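Blackboard transcription, Thursday session:
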Amino acid sequence: MSEKEEHLDAPAAAQSSGEPVIRSADDSAKGYTVHAEDWHFDEVRVYVSGTVSMDNAEHVRRDLVRAVTAQPMKNVLIDLSKVEYFDSSGAAILLDIFRVTDELHTSLRLVNVPERIRSLRDFADLDRHIESGILQPRPEPNLLIQIGEGMLQLHRNTVDILTFIGAAVEALIHDVARPGKLKWDRLWKLVDKAGSDAVPIVTLLSFLMGCILAFQAAVQLRKFGANIFVADLVSVSICLEMGPLLTALIVAGRSGAAYAAQIGTMQVTEEVDALRVMGIDPIRYLVSPRILAVALALPCLTLIADLAGILGGCLVAAFSLDITPVGYFNQVHKVLEFTDVMKGLIKSFVFGIEIAMIGCLRGFQVRGGAESVGAATTSAVVTSIFILTVTDAVFAVLFYYGPSF
Amino acid sequence: MSEDLQSNHTASPPIISVRNLTVGYGDEIVLRDVSFDVLQGEVLAILGRSGCGKSTLFKAMVGLIEPIQGEVYIDGEKVLPVLEGASEKILRKVGVLFQSGALFSSMTLAENVAFPIRLFTKLAERIVERLVMLKLAEVGLTGKERLLPSELSGGMQKRAALARAMALDPKILFFDEPSAGLDPVTSAEIDQTILRINATLGTTVVIVTHELHSILTVADRVIMLDKDEKNIIAAGSPWELKENARDQRVVDFFNRSPADDRGPVR
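(Written on the board underneath:)
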């Protein structure tokens, strides 16, 4: 039986005891009755009977609170002898009533507690020890703390990234210096997955991109009778920008995300640690083949994308601008230089390294469970898109001001 | 071998009855024509060596996989596959503690425990909060309410998962390998919690396990499955089986002796 400190200083004269007060004896349909009567000049007895379950707990609580607060000066005794069924929600209500009496500075006693909720005794003052609001989100710390934590996070992140880049570059150099030791069949499998499997989607999107570019250009160029320049616009913009960037974005969404999820899951299931205890450097085993694979596959895909895009332009030119395919390709041949294509391929080689690195890095940063893997995958794609665009801008400047080929 | 397995020490109808159950994956049959009852308020352990179909049977009993043949009844009501309209009545009666705990990693402990309560009842937030406190206190996790599962040790995760399984005061609790991966002290604590719930709340408990020590501590009755037989090969009280079993497979299991006679490994 749990009993709180008695507060006997409650003035009793105001309430003279008389006939029993029936607070709420209805709802036999709901399976319970709450019945309160004055007992002493300073005590009110509340009888609960019937069934108290999760389905009617809300009503029981309401009635109990009403019974307890009706005579706020009196101590409360709750008698549970006639209770037939009483589950944890009943215990939860009683905890709540304890809080109510606490606020009224009266005491609450339980008598005839059924065997199955005896253990409640141990938890009776749980309520006072625990801050409430355990189901609310954690309160935000103040701004200074947030800034501090942010800086620490940034520092840790930077160290992580630099360490990872260092380790990856070291592993790469190791592998490239001794190609004999490389596991070529594993590498080809990765190239297959990152490259060959992406051919259909890359071809389709690039072809459509070529069509769209040609179509939009046609609308403008037709006004000046400069139809033939569609070939210039499509071929140069596809080979220099759209081809490499579009392909890289597709591969970032496919392979970059896949690497993050795969390595992240391996991290969660301790597969990465298993590699470590076997003396295998996970960076060398997992990361460097992936970087090589994407760096090899991406230029090939870009070349396919260039071709598909130019073909797409040709199709639109033939149908909506009356340019013959021969005329179109002649113009392409005249304006498109070998260096333009090469610039695109060099870019895509660098993009490939970045995509694989970011994917693997995010995978290695996974801590915890499913949610963290999801976050890593998202972050791999978002970071890739950002870094790819920045790199593309850098290349644009470099190619413009740098030495020409 | 169905009727003779029912123990007859109480007259109340069985709370779970498994009737001629055949389960498997695709063409592979794991268990064939299994029948048994679980009585109200007992602790039943389903035993067997790895791969004998314990977990498959457990999944069929809670409606996670559809039986090829036969039925499972809980409190007289047929268990349907969970996604094909299992009744809310059955779902509320059953709590499941999975082998890995299976706490939702994106939610705090308190939110994990509150999840089924919010789903199945219309209790006000403050009552839900008290209930969550009670349940977490019952498994000894007071003060850890706001932590994420990933911030806890394996044993604590298991206890939190137990709190979630008990959140709605289910009539039946299923445990899949409750002591897997736990230290002896923690697994003994889980055993004690199982016994306490069974004693104070009268909850029927079904445990899938091969942990001898905990079988002997908690189980009123065991049924043992076998891989080759694809059925129950023994049933009865654990001590009785340990002392008197004739079947070599049961003897091997209880004596922890290797099945084939290859002698000690050098």
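Lecturer's comment: The two ends of chain B are 41 Å apart (CA to CA).
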